[in-house]
């Protein structure tokens, strides 16, 4: 018989003094430690928790400067690792996630099926109807970008902030390189893929009470697009060039070169045809079209390989001493 794993919960807090007491109260006995991270909160969430909360599991951590949800979570992660936690859960302070679902969330990790588990609010039609339309559209768009940049094509709702990670995998992550603010969840998935960590989706239902998100889509859309593009390029370079150059790598390289040649050659010939007034010959058209068709076919073949190249075996059992 082995001892049950110790589970710690990290709750990043900013302007959450009214909701976080209820979140803490809902955390069940399966959790051994609760880290409330006051991210330079103007309503002094940390002080209010220390004054009102009688749960001996609660530890309040404070930031002098606001670092964002990612920075606060990283602080909680590091403290949980120092205290010897086996599994670390991230739970938002706004009360949308039911703390009673923590045992369900950590089960794939405890049973050795996954290294990282995350909530999935899109598992059923009823759950979708309960989600505000703007949230659904935003999450759907963000989810598509995250699939491309992270490589986890089989997961749903990647922006979900209700997550759990095995401590041995967390120690391998370069936490200082993970985004500090709202891009945190997407960036975590990107770095987990580079480790080849197994990620599991866990069905859940969120509780919406009409609260407004502090995330402004217009303010971050440019930043998110740039970071997703950067992560996608970095992932493809590392996985298909540096770590393992194989048939898929050749398909990507030849596909890009063929597509680029066809487009450039076709544009040059089209422009010359406009200037001279003479239509391009059938041979010229075919010479431009064929590389484009071949390039698209090669890129589609690479995409199919990449979508199947999702980590399928948990990493943490191999990291144990």
Would you kindly provide a written description of the structure presented here, covering whatever features stand out?
The structure is a single chain. This protein is α/β, with parallel strands linked by helices. It is built from 12 helices and 7 strands. The longest helix is centred in the C-terminal third of the chain and has 30 residues. The mean pLDDT is 88.
Shape: elongated
Low-confidence stretches: none
Average pLDDT works out at 88
Name the beta content range.
Answer: 5-15%
Taking all Cα atoms into account, the compactness measure Rg is 24 Å
Largest sheet: 7 strands, mixed
The tally of beta strands, per DSSP, is 7
Strands ordered across the widest β-sheet: 3-2-1-4-6-5-7
Residues in helices, as a percent range: 40-55%
Structural class: alpha/beta
Name the helix and strand elements from N-terminus to C-terminus, one letter apiece. EHEHEHEHEHHEHHEHHHH
Number of helices: 12
End-to-end separation: 18 Å
Quick overview:
52% of the residues lie in helices and 12% in strands. It is an alpha/beta fold and 321 residues long. The protein has a seven-stranded mixed β-sheet, sandwiched between helices.
Note the topology.
Layout: E1 7-13, H1 20-25, E2 31-39, H2 45-52, E3 58-63, H3 68-82, E4 87-90, H4 102-110, E5 116-120, H5 125-130, H6 133-150, E6 163-166, H7 167-172, H8 184-195, E7 199-203, H9 217-243, H10 247-276, H11 282-308, H12 316-319
Parallel strand pairs: 1-2, 1-4, 2-3, 5-7
Antiparallel strand pairs: 4-6, 5-6
Helix pairs in contact: 6-9, 8-9, 10-11
């Amino acid at each position: 018989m082995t001892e049950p794993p110790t589970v710690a919960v990290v709750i990043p807090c900013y302007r959450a003094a009214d909701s976080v007491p209820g979140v803490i109260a809902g955390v069940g006995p399966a959790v051994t430690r609760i880290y409330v991270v006051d991210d330079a909160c103007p309503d002094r969430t940390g002080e209010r928790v220390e004054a009102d909360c009688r749960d001996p599991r609660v530890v309040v951590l404070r930031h002098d400067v606001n670092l964002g949800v990612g920075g606060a979570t990283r602080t909680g992660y590091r403290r949980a690792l120092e205290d010897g936690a086996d599994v670390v859960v991230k739970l938002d302070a706004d009360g949308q996630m039911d703390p009673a679902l923590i045992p369900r969330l950590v089960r794939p990790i405890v049973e050795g099926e996954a290294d990282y588990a995350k909530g999935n609010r899109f598992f059923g039609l009823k759950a979708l109807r309960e989600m505000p339309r703007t949230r659904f559209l935003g999450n759907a768009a963000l989810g598509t970008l995250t699939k491309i940049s992270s490589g986890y094509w089989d997961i749903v709702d990647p922006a979900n902030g209700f997550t759990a990670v095995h401590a041995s995998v967390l120690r391998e992550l370069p936490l200082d390189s993970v985004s500090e603010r709202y891009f945190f969840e997407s960036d975590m998935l990107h770095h987990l893929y580079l480790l080849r960590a197994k990620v599991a989706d866990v069905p859940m239902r969120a509780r919406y009470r009409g609260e407004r998100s502090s995330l402004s889509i217009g303010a971050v859309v440019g930043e998110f697009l740039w970071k997703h593009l950067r992560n996608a390029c970095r992932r493809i370079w590392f996985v298909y060039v540096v770590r393992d150059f194989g048939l898929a790598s050749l398909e990507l390289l030849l596909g890009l070169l063929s597509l680029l040649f066809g487009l450039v050659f076709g544009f040059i010939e089209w422009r010359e045809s406009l200037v001279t007034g003479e239509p391009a010959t059938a041979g010229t058209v075919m010479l431009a079209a064929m590389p484009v068709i071949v390039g698209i076919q090669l890129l589609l073949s690479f995409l199919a390989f990449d979508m199947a190249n999702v980590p399928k075996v948990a990493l943490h059992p191999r990291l144990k001493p």
